[in-house]
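Protocol step 4 of 6: structure prediction from sequence.
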Amino acid sequence: YRTFYQGEWSEIREADKKLSIPIGYLDLPEDCAQPPLVLDFKEADGNLRIVGNPGSGKAQTIQSIVLSLAFTHQPDELHFYILDYSADGSLRVLENLPHTGALIRLPEKERLQRLVKRFQEEIDTRSRIDWRAEGYPELFLIINNYAELYSNYPDEAEAASSFVRAGKGAGIHVV
């Protein structure tokens, strides 16, 4: 592990919070402080929902999260599977990361169906073994524009929603 940052950010990974990542700074003017904004995917249900109006920065937030995870983790520790249903393909820049297993766009229904099947199989397999001890990576399903996914592929969108409920115990996280 290496970091371009000093102080608090470099201590996050060393505290053995494997899925804690810095994505920016909080501004607390009443305390005259700017501590790091840290997301921990081990907390609560291990998933994250980002909501906002068009043009509000949701895709940039997703990029920050993915890049921070990629920067603080080796490719054998976690994998990204990205469903980019935005009009401009704004997550395409993440496709060449060594952590990225697939980036699927709107017209690629067959690839989407294979990915859903793979995630269902992963949940089944990981529920029967100690997947952490076996060295299985954490899996992240990144969905940009869930509404578009749901309107075009409702069955696959429902399956993705089921990963939110069943995934944490299997090391599967949905953003």
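Step 5 (inspection) to follow. The beta strands are 20-25, 36-40, 78-84, 100-104, 138-144, 172-174.
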